[in-house]
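hey so i finally got around to running the thing on that chain from the lab meeting. sorry it took forever, my laptop kept dying and i had to restart like 3 times. anyway pasting the input first so we r on the same page abt which one it is
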Amino acid sequence: QVQLVESGGGAVQPGGSLRLSCAASGFSFSSYFIRWYRQAPGKERELVAAIGSAGTTDYADSVKGRFTISRDNAKNRVYLQMNDLKPEDTAVYYCYSLGYYGQGTQVTVSS
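ok and heres what got predicted. didnt touch it at all, straight out
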């Protein structure tokens, strides 16, 4: 059974950084893409970043140059390094693959 468990969220001030982690299990991790989505209160879930099995990456325009997605196939983990955080980055962040989402981790950016 596919399981995705996010961690690393928290509260930071604008300009701060956080590193989210997604631990995956139940499937051949290295063979599949992983995406990070986020959902802010009252808004639809949106794609933030994606990484393919070969390591190719893609980002939403709103986070390009600030966020970096990476993967460690030996540990079955995907990371989202978030720098220069802005209040509009406040949301629940979800890891996604193969039709499954994790439970999410809250990121709050506020002064």
